Amino acid sequence: MKSRGGCRNAPAFRFSGVVLRGFLFRAEAQRKRRAQRERERERERAPGRLSASPGDLPFGANIRIAEWLRRKCHISAISASSAPLRETHSSATTGSTFPIHPAKRGPMTDVDSSLLPEGLEDRLPAEAATTTRVMRSLQDVMHSHGYHRVLPPMIEFEKSLATRMAGIQSRRMFRFTDPSSLRMMALRSDHTPQIGRIAQTRLAEAARPLRLMYAGQVLTIKSDGLDPAREKLQCGAELIGADNVAAATEIVALAVEALQATGASGISVDFTLPDLVDTLAAKAFPLDPARIEAVRRELDTKDAGGLRDVGGEAYVPLLYATGEFDSAIEKLFAIDAGGALASRITALRQIAASLNGQARLTLDPSERHGFEYQTWFGFTLYAEGARGPVGRGGTYRIAGNGQDEPATGFSLYPDALIDLLSASETPEDRVFLPLGHDRDEAARLRSIGWRTVAALSDADSAQALACTHVLGANGPEKLG
């Protein structure tokens, strides 16, 4: 007997139309009951709000985020404007930091509506003013050295951000599906890949070396080390088309000058050689390719015992070639068997000499943290009183157009510097303009640099509005 429904071993049954419709009706009713039970379980886990959270997200799975949201949250459509970043809900009770569409949002308590997600913060007027001044000072220095500013978008296709340069980790980016193209997009965690894209595409025909600068915010899923911030300011310069000693010298000097222009003091530059292990493993200190990554890891952790355990006995002296630049470079020179590092040591000495005492110099040749895509040269910047590094830079290569292009650059992260400087900033003078004041005189004061605050009612006063002067018959009069 011929089977039905494609099952070779199933017996044949003849159903009347009534029986078949009844069977389908019961099956549909069972499906709806299962869906209802699933929705009830979801509401029990997170009353009054959606249960989706970043931890539920199957990163790396071959499932589009949009489809996952429809299945998990019962959302039929997703809009790019569903929830802005700052509207992201954060709850200490649920642990959820997933954006929730206002139409789907449950009742909020006063505490809920006041929270920001972990690692994000507001900058109030005093800090915001310092931020504006610091960012302007940094960019003015770069502009004076011939660097042109570009403004890339905050969001790009993930593939463009992740494949432009080696070492970029897309798992550190906020990612989502673009409702228009259904392609994966990401919020930038670093401007440098975007600058590389611009240089390789829109400015591919521009003369080299090409000097570009940028300033803006970057965002990462997780904070870095002891710094809890996930949103940071980033300002930097890239010299596209050159990664030689002259380019490195210009970039390091420019970074130091830019920091000094903000009012930072006690600037320190720590040099490193990101490709040190690869260079030595090729000839001077041969390593099995399978051991190279393990040796890098133990050098990063400064573990002499671990180095010996993974077969990196010859690399142990590198752990002690650190500290003040002059003494550390001599130790590195003594270690350099066969002159494998001769050109790099000479280059480091030339770069250090060019700074002419503008900054304190140190050397840690095996440091690789934060230098995932740098090649032969890297450096970290510190400022007195600022917590952690205030910048990093070095040489790297940009992938695209069939061949890599060399580049040298740096990125400054001035948030810690802004926190430090804002505490000592002198408040600006503000002139209170009473009701019925002379508008022409007020305009003249603003044209020569005064800040004015106009009264809107009889209840307004200079003291309440934090003004330092009042506009009188003879001009601004300082408050006693």
Short structural summary:
This protein is α+β, with helices and mostly antiparallel strands and 480 residues long.
Task: Provide structural commentary.
With 480 residues, this protein is of the alpha+beta class. Strand 3 and strand 4 form a beta hairpin. The chain starts with 16 loop residues before the first helix and ends with a strand. The N terminus is likely disordered.
Please write out the topology:
Elements lengths: L16 H29 L19 H9 L36 H5 L10 H20 L3 E2 L5 E3 H6 L11 E3 L6 E4 L4 H9 L9 E10 L11 E10 L4 H17 L6 E5 L3 H7 L6 H12 L3 H6 L13 E2 H11 L6 H14 L4 E4 L10 E9 L8 E8 L6 E8 L2 H8 L7 E4 L5 H9 L3 E4 L14 E4 L2 E4 L2
Parallel strand pairs: 1-5, 7-9, 13-14, 13-15
Antiparallel strand pairs: 2-4, 3-4, 5-6, 6-12, 7-10, 8-9, 10-11, 11-12, 15-16
Helix pairs in contact: 4-7, 4-13, 7-12, 11-12
